[in-house]
Automatic annotation (TrEMBL):
Originating organism: Paramuricea clavata
GO molecular function: metal ion binding; nucleic acid binding; poly(A)-specific ribonuclease activity
Residue ranges, compositional bias (Basic and acidic residues): 678-692
PANTHER family: DEADENYLATION COMPLEX CATALYTIC SUBUNIT PAN2, PAN2-PAN3 DEADENYLATION COMPLEX CATALYTIC SUBUNIT PAN2
Single biological process term from Gene Ontology: mRNA processing
InterPro entries cross-referenced by the UniProt entry: PAN2, PAN2-PAN3_catalytic_subunit, PAN2_N, PAN2_UCH_dom, Papain-like_cys_pep_sf, Ribonucl_H, RNaseH-like_sf, RNaseH_sf
Protein name: PAN2-PAN3 deadenylation complex catalytic subunit PAN2 isoform X1
CC annotations in GO: P-body; PAN complex
Region Disordered, annotated ranges: 678-698
Record's catalysed reaction(s): Exonucleolytic cleavage of poly(A) to 5'-AMP
Keyword terms, alphabetized: Cytoplasm, Exonuclease, Hydrolase, Metal-binding, mRNA processing, Nuclease, Nucleus
HAMAP family: PAN2
Length: 1071
C-alpha cells in the first residue's frame, strides 16, 4: 500500500456498501482497493498519527486516531473532522444507528457523536480501558485492557454484567447471534503469554461454555464467518490461520493450519467480507494480503453491492497536422482575441431588433386582481426571476396530436401496439389521484382496477374471475373468520365492482392478504417494484402460476368440512365450488416399462397446460387436437418402481371421468418453437369461408359513380343491373366482410364428447346450429388473457372477456358487441375477432377460458350473504396488554340500539404510510409525483349521531398490521410506534377484516356517514359507499374551482373552536 515502505498496516476493513477494501497505516494514510484484483481506488493522507479503526456507512468512511475522528467521502473528500480535550486515547467506534456513532478508548468517557450535526451529543462516564466494542441483540459488549468484557444497556450504557475472560489482557473478541468468543493473554509469573484457549459464552444464559483449544497457534485475532454461524477464523500474530467450529467438531479443514506470507512481519489487521467469501490481512511490513475461497469465478465482497463511482476518463485530443488541407480550421483551438475578427459583420449591415414580448399566461390573467390601475396575480413559480424562456417558432409546427392523459411524454407514432392495448400509466398532480381523469380510459359501465398497488399485475385475472357468475356469487356469499382469506377478500372486491357503475376500483385489501401468504412469496409471485419497472418479469409464466396458486388457495378457503358420526373422528370434505367449476376428475395410470407393474390414482386437475406436438410442420393440427392430446397425453419419464426397487422408465397416461364447467387452458408459450407453432397456425388459418356461407347483403341505395361499368369486386353502391334502387328486405348473398372471412386457429366454440371408458373426442364446430348427440358438451370461449409487449414499456397483461347479458345494465342486442378489453383501469369495447387474434410480435396468449354452454342454469346465482350483528357488538381486542374495562375509549352498541336506514354515524379514519411517495423535480422547478405513498388504515372511529349517547363512539378500532411502517404520521394521526403491535399495544386492537365487516354491516343497513374527507378514507379502506349515504363536509362547503376548506376552519366558523388550539387527537370523537 501507499507508504508501506515506511509504515506498517494498522487496520483493514471490507466496505459494507461497495466492493472496496480500506487500509489504514501507522502514518495516518488511508488507501482503498476495488474488487478482487485490488485495483487502487483512492489514496489520501487523513491523519498525522496511526489510524486505529475504520468504519464505513452509506455516506463514506470514518477513520479514528488516538485524538481525532474524521469522516471522508469514498472519493477522498473530507466532510468533517472532530477532536477534543477529552479525546486523549481513543481506540474503537461503533455505529449505533444511521446518524449516531459511539467512540470509546482508554479515557473515562464514551462519546455519542451525531454524524449529521457533527457534534458530540452526550458523554457517558464508564470504566477506562475500552478497546473493542461489538453489539449483540441485547447488549453493547465492551472489551477492556484488563481482560474483561462488560455488557452494557444499548440505550443508557449502564453496565449490567461483567464477563472475566482472561487474567491478563484482552486481544480480540466477536459476537454472532447468542455466542461470544474471545482470545487474549494470561498473566503467568508476572509475564503475559497468549492463551491457547478461546473462551466462549452463551449470551442468553450469561454463562461460559466449553472453551476451544488451539494448540497449534497463539490466537491474536478472530472473527465469525458471516455465512456460517458456527465457524470462527483465528489468526496468530505471526500469520498462522485456522478455521474452528465452535461446536467442537473436528474436520479436515479445522485441523489444517494456513500461513499468510508476511515475510517476517506481524499481522496487524484482519477482516472477513460480509458474504464470507474473502479475508484480508495487513502486516507490519505494509503489505495487504487478500485470501478467497478456492474456485470462486465471480468474487464479490457483499451480497448486494451498489456500483462504485469512478473518475471520468480524460480524453486527449489527437494531434493534427497544420499543413493537412482536409482538417477544418475549427479543429485548432485559438487564443482569445481582443481585436475584431475577419468574420465579424460591419455595423452598417446590422440592425437592432428587439424580441417580441411573449403573451402573458392566461392562468395569470384569470387570477389577476386589479386595484386602481395595477394588476396583481400570484406567482405560479414556474419561471426564474427576470428571465423569459426563448421559444422557437418551429415548435408550434410540430406534429399535431391531441393531448390526452395517456402517454403525454411519448411519441404517439413510435409504437405499433394499438393504443387501447398499451400499458396505462397514472399521471399524478399535487392532488394525487383526485384529479386524474379515469373516464378518459373507460367509457363503459364496467369498473377498471388501479395499478399503483404492488403486485397489481393480476388485475386481468381478477376481472376474469368476476365475470364468471357462479364463481362471483359463491365468493360473495362466502364469509369466514380467517383473517387473511383470499375468498373473502375477492367477495368484498366483487361487491365493489357490482356497485361501482363504471368507477375505477382497487384491489388493495385482496393484495394485502395475498402478500401475507408465504407460499406466494416462495413461488415468486410477489414482485419487487424494481423488477417490474426494469422489465425483468416473465409475465406469461407469472400469470399462469398465479392462477394455479390462487385456484388452489380458493379451494382450501372455500372447502367445507362436516363431522362424521361419533364412531369415527374422520371428517368428510365436501366438494368445493372451485372443484365443481374448474376441476377435471382424472384417473392417472403409471406403468413400468420393464416389469409392467401398474399404479392408479384419482386426481382433480384445475388447469390444463397445452402440450404441443413434436411435429409442428403438420398443418392439419387444429386447436382441439392439441387440447385433446393435452387432456389425455401419454408421457414417459423416470419414476420409482416398487417391484424393481429402482428408478425405471415409466409410461404415464390419463383418463377423464368428468369434464369441468370452466375449462381453463394455460398456453405455455415458453420456447421459441412454441411461438413459431402459433405463428404458423395463425398464417394457415387466414382462409376464406365456403362460398355457400350466407351473409346479409348491405348494398347501399346510393348510385355508383362508375355506373354499370363498375368492375370493383364487392362494390356496395347501387347499379342499374341490381334492380330496385331501395331493396324492401335485406338479401342473403355469398358476399362477406373481411372480418367474417378470417378463420382463427382458436375456436369460439367447440364440442367435447366423453365416453364411458374415459376416452375424449374434441371437435370443431363450423356453426352453432350443428347437430349434437347425447353426451356432447359445447364449450364457448369466455375470455383470453394476453401479454402485451411494447418496446418502450415493461409490458402489461390484458383480459378480453365476453360479458354476459346479466352484467349489462342496458339490454344488448348483438352478441358480438359484448366483448370488452380490460387493461387495468382502461376498459374498451372490442370486436369479437380481437379476442382470438394473436400477433406474437406484441400480443402473446397466456390463458384461455372456455365455459360450458348454459352453465349458469345449474347454479344458484342469488347473493344471500348476511353479516351477523354480533360483529358490531363485539368488544374483543387482540392486544395482550389491553384491559377492556379500564382502557376502553368507546361504548359498544347494546341490543336496544337499532341500526336502521338513515341513522347518522360520524366516521373518521387515521392512516400510516407503508411506502413513501416517489417524486421528481423537473427542469422548471416543479415537483411531479411518480408514485403516491402507500397508505394503510390504522384507526377507524364511528360516533353515534343520534340517541341519548349522541357523540359517544361505538367503534374505535386500531388496525393491527404485520407490514413494515415507514411513517406513523403521529403529528396528524396520533398513532405511535407500538400501537399497532399485538404484543406491545395497549389499544383496542382488531384485524382489518373485522373492522371492514363492521362498516359493511352499517353500509347494508343504509346508515348516513358524516365526516371530513371521506373520499380518501373510503378509498384507503377499499370500500365502495354510495353517494346517497355520504355527507362529506369537504364537498358540502366547497365552491367550484376553489380550494377545499380545512376542518379546523369549519370548526372555528360554525362551532366556535379557537384556531389557536392545535388539534391533538386525544379522543376518538375529537374530529
Amino acid at each position: 500500500m501507499d507508504g508501506g515502505d515506511r509504515f506498517g498496516v494498522s487496520t483493514v476493513l471490507f466496505d459494507s456498501h461497495e466492493e472496496l477494501i480500506w487500509v489504514g497505516n501507522e502514518g495516518g494514510h488511508i488507501t482503498s482497493y476495488f474488487g478482487s484484483e485490488m485495483q487502487k481506488y483512492t489514496s489520501f493522507q487523513a491523519h498525522e498519527n496511526e489510524v486505529r479503526h475504520l468504519l464505513t456507512n452509506d455516506g463514506g468512511v470514518l477513520s479514528l486516531t488516538h485524538n481525532e475522528i474524521r469522516f471522508t467521502k469514498r472519493q477522498g473528500l473530507k466532510l468533517f473532522s472532530l477532536s477534543g480535550s477529552n479525546m486523549t486515547d481513543m481506540q474503537c467506534m461503533l455505529q449505533k444507528d444511521d446518524s449516531t456513532l459511539l467512540i470509546a478508548g482508554h479515557q473515562d468517557e464514551i462519546f455519542e457523536l451525531d454524524l449529521n450535526r457533527h457534534k458530540i451529543l452526550q458523554e457517558y462516564t464508564v470504566e477506562p480501558g475500552t478497546c473493542i466494542m461489538k453489539v449483540s441483540s441485547r447488549y453493547l459488549c465492551c472489551g477492556d485492557s484488563s481482560g474483561k468484557i462488560r455488557l452494557r444497556d444499548p440505550k443508557t450504557l449502564k453496565c449490567e454484567h461483567v464477563l472475566s475472560a482472561h487474567s491478563g489482557t484482552l486481544s480480540d473478541f466477536d459476537v454472532l447471534g447468542n455466542t461470544l468468543v474471545t482470545c487474549g493473554f494470561s498473566s503467568r509469573q508476572g509475564h503475559l503469554s497468549a492463551d491457547r484457549f478461546l473462551m466462549m459464552y452463551d449470551m442468553r444464559m450469561l454463562r461460559s461454555l466449553a472453551p476451544l483449544q488451539t494448540p497449534m497457534l497463539e490466537p491474536f485475532m478472530l472473527k465469525f464467518s458471516s455465512t456460517m454461524s458456527s465457524r470462527v477464523q483465528v489468526v496468530s500474530h505471526s500469520g498462522q490461520l485456522q478455521f474452528l467450529d465452535i461446536g467442537g467438531h473436528m474436520t479436515a479443514r479445522s485441523m489444517y493450519i494456513y500461513h499468510v506470507n508476511t515475510h517476517g512481519g506481524m499481522v496487524a489487521g484482519f477482516d472477513i467480507s460480509p458474504n464470507g467469501q474473502a479475508s484480508v490481512f495487513g502486516d507490519s511490513a505494509g503489505v495487504v494480503h487478500l485470501w478467497v475461497d478456492h474456485g470462486m469465478e465471480h468474487l464479490a465482497f457483499n451480497i448486494y453491492s451498489r456500483p462504485t463511482n469512478f473518475a471520468d476518463e480524460i480524453h486527449h485530443s489527437h494531434p493534427l497536422a497544420i499543413d493537412d488541407d482536409s482538417v477544418p480550421y475549427s479543429s485548432f483551438p485559438l487564443p482569445h482575441c481582443s481585436e475584431p475578427l475577419l468574420s465579424d459583420w460591419p455595423k452598417k449591415l446590422l440592425k437592432r431588433r428587439d424580441r417580441r414580448t411573449p403573451p402573458i399566461d392566461p392562468e395569470i390573467l384569470r387570477a389577476m386582481v386589479v386595484k386602481g390601475f395595477i394588476g396583481q396575480a400570484p406567482n405560479p413559480g414556474n419561471r426564474l426571476r427576470n428571465q423569459v424562456p426563448y421559444i422557437w417558432r418551429s415548435t408550434s409546427k410540430q406534429k399535431r396530436v391531441p393531448e390526452s392523459p395517456m402517454n403525454r411524454e411519448q411519441n404517439p407514432f413510435s409504437s405499433l401496439v394499438p393504443k387501447i392495448y398499451r400499458r396505462v400509466e397514472m399521471r399524478y398532480s399535487k392532488l394525487g389521484v383526485d384529479d386524474f381523469n379515469f373516464q378518459h380510459y373507460n367509457k363503459t359501465s364496467f369498473a377498471g382496477l388501479e395499478i399503483h398497488i404492488p403486485n397489481a399485475y393480476c388485475n386481468c385475472m381478477l376481472q376474469t374471475f368476476y365475470f364468471l357468475e357462479p364463481l362471483k356469487v359463491s365468493l360473495q356469499n362466502h364469509l369466514c373468520k380467517k383473517e387473511f382469506c383470499l375468498a373473502c377478500e375477492l367477495g368484498f372486491l366483487f361487491d365493489m365492482l357490482d356497485q361501482s357503475s363504471g368507477q375505477t376500483c382497487q384491489a388493495s385489501n385482496f393484495l394485502r392478504a395475498f402478500r401475507t401468504l408465504r407460499e406466494a412469496s416462495a413461488l415468486g409471485l410477489l414482485l419487487p417494484d424494481t423488477d417490474e419497472s426494469l422489465g425483468r418479469v416473465n409475465y406469461p409464466r407469472l400469470i399462469q402460476s398465479w392462477q394455479r396458486f390462487v385456484l388452489q388457495q380458493l379451494h382450501r378457503d372455500t372447502e367445507v368440512k362436516h363431522d362424521e358420526s361419533e364412531e369415527g373422528n374422520e371428517t368428510e370434505r365436501v366438494t368445493a365450488l372451485i372443484n365443481s367449476l374448474f376441476g377435471s376428475q382424472v384417473q392417472r395410470t403409471s406403468q413400468c416399462s420393464q416389469c409392467g407393474a401398474q399404479t392408479t390414482r384419482d386426481d382433480i386437475t384445475l388447469l390444463t397446460a397445452l402440450s404441443y406436438p413434436d411435429n409442428p410442420e403438420n398443418q392439419a393440427i387444429s386447436f382441439v387436437n392439441v387440447l385433446q392430446s393435452s387432456l389425455l397425453g401419454v408421457q414417459t419419464s423416470p419414476a420409482w418402481c416398487e417391484n424393481c426397487n429402482k428408478f425405471q422408465p415409466t409410461i404415464h397416461s390419463k383418463k377423464l371421468s368428468r369434464l369441468p364447467d370452466v375449462l381453463s387452458v394455460n398456453c405455455q408459450i415458453d420456447a421459441e418453437k412454441h411461438k413459431e407453432f402459433w405463428n404458423r397456425k395463425k398464417d394457415n388459418s387466414t382462409e376464406k369461408k365456403p362460398k355457400d356461407t350466407p351473409v346479409q347483403n348491405t348494398r347501399s341505395n346510393i348510385p355508383c359513380r362508375f355506373g354499370d361499368g363498375c368492375t370493383r369486386v364487392g362494390c356496395t353502391f347501387w347499379h342499374t343491373k341490381d334492380g330496385e334502387q331501395t331493396p324492401a328486405e335485406p338479401e342473403l348473398t355469398v358476399e362477406s366482410s373481411r372480418e367474417d372471412c378470417v378463420l382463427t386457429w382458436v375456436p369460439f366454440f367447440m364440442k367435447l364428447r366423453l365416453a364411458d371408458d374415459g376416452t375424449l373426442v374434441c371437435l370443431d364446430l363450423n356453426s352453432e346450429d350443428e347437430s349434437l348427440e347425447d353426451g356432447d358438451i359445447i364449450y364457448d370461449l369466455k375470455s383470453s388473457v394476453a401479454h402485451i409487449q411494447d418496446y418502450n414499456s415493461p409490458g402489461n397483461l390484458v383480459a378480453m372477456i365476453n360479458v354476459d347479458k346479466s352484467y349489462h345494465k342496458e339490454p344488448v342486442a348483438d352478441e358480438d358487441s359484448s366483448w370488452y378489453l380490460f387493461n387495468d383501469f382502461g376498459v374498451s369495447e372490442i370486436s369479437k375477432g380481437e379476442a382470438v387474434e394473436f400477433d406474437l410480435s406484441w400480443k402473446t396468449p397466456c390463458i384461455l377460458q372456455f365455459v360450458r354452454r348454459n352453465m349458469n342454469t345449474d347454479y344458484d346465482l342469488t347473493v344471500c350473504r348476511t353479516i351477523d350483528k354480533q360483529i358490531i357488538l363485539g368488544d374483543v381486542s387482540l392486544s395482550q396488554l389491553h384491559n377492556a374495562a379500564a382502557q376502553r375509549s368507546f361504548t359498544p352498541l347494546n341490543l336496544n340500539e337499532v341500526i336502521q336506514e338513515g341513522v347518522v354515524v360520524g366516521i373518521d379514519c387515521e392512516f400510516v404510510t407503508l411506502n413513501q411517495e416517489e417524486s421528481e423535480i423537473r427542469s422548471d422547478g416543479t415537483r411531479s409525483t411518480v408514485k403516491p405513498s402507500h397508505m394503510s388504515a390504522a384507526r377507524v372511529t364511528c360516533v353515534r349521531g343520534e340517541g341519548p349517547l349522541r357523540g359517544r363512539p361505538f367503534i374505535d378500532d386500531y388496525i393491527s398490521t404485520s407490514e413494515q411502517v415507514v411513517d406513523y404520521l403521529t403529528e396528524f394521526s396520533g398513532i405511535n410506534p407500538g400501537d399497532l403491535d399485538v404484543a406491545l399495544s395497549s389499544k383496542h386492537l382488531t384485524t382489518l377484516k373485522t373492522t371492514y365487516l363492521k362498516l359493511k354491516y352499517l353500509l347494508q343497513h343504509n346508515v348516513l356517514f358524516v365526516g371530513h374527507g371521506l373520499k380518501k378514507d373510503f378509498r384507503v379502506l377499499n370500500i365502495m359507499v354510495p353517494k346517497s349515504q355520504i355527507v362529506d363536509t369537504v364537498q358540502l362547503f366547497h365552491l367550484p374551482q376553489q380550494r377545499f376548506i380545512s376542518l379546523r376552519f369549519l370548526a372555528w366558523y360554525f362551532l366556535g373552536f379557537s384556531s389557536a388550539c392545535t388539534y391533538a387527537p386525544e379522543g376518538p370523537g375529537d374530529e
